[in-house]
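Hi R.,

As promised on Friday, here is the backbone we talked about, encoded as structure tokens. Could you run it through your design pipeline when you get a chance and send me back a sequence?
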């Protein structure tokens, strides 16, 4: 007889997601030091970072296909082993290739955690999926805040990046121990009696494809801007890292209080509200200067905080036949879109900087210029102009989402009225 301990499974899931987000926060904080210690250039550091974004969607999609076959528990054992291997390989890294493969392993582990835990949370709380997925996903921004604080503390104590990475072992070992001792429910699709054929048909329906396309845009709006905000606005404000901490802090608080908002607006209403605030915040971030940038970050944080979990929650509630595959295709596609967009915008940003430098200037020459020289001042001025322009290009996405989610709200009202009429 199975003994499903709902709360323990939920908290173990939160710890597993905490490891995922710590890996983002800690790695972001130590990249410069890795460059110094292993003599890596910006291109090498960029490719190391990108592997986490490749491993994540790969693991999510594969996990979504196999989770019903092997079960959520076995999938989480695989995630635990990949996390252990990735963390150990990072601590004992010898150079570029060990860092590359350790980041890939951690990326695969992170994707596997989401592949198992999104359907697990949906199965544990069938009557409040969107609310519980918001509670679960608050540990992602929460872990980034904790990760940046750990990095700051360890740097001030002159403790190396190896020890920063080693702190991830504590929640990893706890979630591995908890999951090994607990019984797991069946995935919701299996327990509801939907066949594999139903699942594959569900991910080809117009509503699912619409949500998949929207996920590409919501993920880029949230994660690309969150990652790049420090780089793009460091010349606008001295506290670019504080901006990131503020937006992620808002996401933690917002997701913690998701229940009344989801109840009042329904998932589709929450998504429309989010798109409006995200667009307003992104516009303000690209035009405001000085301390008013913090107000912009606050508005933007309110906007993006519900995107990821509510997108997944909407599909879990309204297209349950899509099962774990539907949830994980959505998450995998979102992360994949962020990696492609980030690569594209890196080149676009460099091009904008060159455009704002004197005619015929070489970016490499100006980047190597010593602080205080006219070249360094010209480069800073070019970055001041280029950063907000990148944000204004990205602003197109939440504006499209406002239109898309308005249509979704209208469609869901129409669908509900038809269901009531049929009943």
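Update: got your reply. Pasting your designed sequence below so it's all in one thread:
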């Amino acid at each position: 007889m199975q003994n499903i301990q709902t709360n323990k499974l939920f908290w173990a899931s939160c710890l597993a997601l905490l490891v995922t987000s710590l890996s983002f926060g800690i790695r972001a904080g130590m990249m410069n030091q890795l460059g110094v210690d292993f003599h890596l250039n910006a291109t090498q550091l960029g490719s190391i970072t990108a592997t986490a974004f490749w491993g994540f969607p790969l693991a999510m999609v594969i996990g979504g296909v196999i989770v019903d076959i092997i079960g959520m528990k076995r999938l989480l054992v695989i995630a635990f082993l990949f996390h252990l291997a990735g963390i150990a390989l990072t601590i004992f890294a010898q150079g570029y290739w060990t860092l590359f493969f350790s980041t890939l392993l951690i990326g695969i582990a992170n994707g596997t955690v989401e592949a198992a835990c999104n359907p697990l949370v949906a199965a544990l709380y069938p009557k409040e999926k969107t609310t519980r997925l918001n509670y679960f996903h608050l540990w992602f921004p929460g872990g980034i805040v904790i990760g940046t604080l750990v990095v700051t503390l360890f740097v001030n104590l002159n403790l190396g990046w190896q020890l920063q990475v080693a702190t991830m072992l504590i929640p990893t070992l706890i979630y591995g121990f908890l999951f090994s001792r607990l019984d797991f429910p069946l995935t919701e699709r299996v327990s509801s009696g939907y066949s594999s054929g139903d699942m594959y048909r569900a991910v080809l329906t117009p509503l699912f494809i619409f949500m998949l396309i929207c996920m590409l845009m919501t993920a880029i709006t949230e994660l690309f801007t969150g990652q790049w905000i420090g780089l793009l606005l460091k010349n606008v404000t001295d506290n670019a890292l504080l901006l990131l901490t503020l937006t992620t802090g808002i996401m933690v608080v917002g997701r913690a209080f998701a229940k009344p908002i989801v109840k009042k607006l329904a998932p589709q209403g929450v998504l429309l509200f989010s798109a409006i605030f995200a667009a307003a915040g992104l516009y303000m971030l690209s035009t405001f200067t000085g301390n008013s940038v913090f107000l912009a970050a606050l508005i933007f944080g309110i906007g993006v905080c519900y995107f990821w979990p509510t997108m997944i929650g909407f599909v879990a509630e309204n297209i349950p036949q899509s099962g774990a595959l539907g949830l994980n295709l959505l998450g995998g596609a979102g992360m994949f879109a962020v990696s492609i967009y980030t690569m594209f915008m890196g080149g676009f940003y460099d091009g904008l900087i060159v455009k704002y430098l004197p005619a015929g200037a070489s970016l490499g020459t100006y980047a190597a210029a010593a602080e205080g020289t006219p070249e360094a001042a010209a480069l800073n001025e070019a970055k001041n102009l280029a950063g907000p322009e990148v944000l204004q290009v990205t602003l197109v996405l939440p504006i499209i989402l406002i239109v898309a989610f308005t249509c979704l709200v209208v469609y869901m009202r129409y669908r509900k009225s038809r269901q009531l009429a049929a009943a």
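One thing I noticed while checking it: The two ends are 38 Å apart (CA to CA).

Thanks again,
M.
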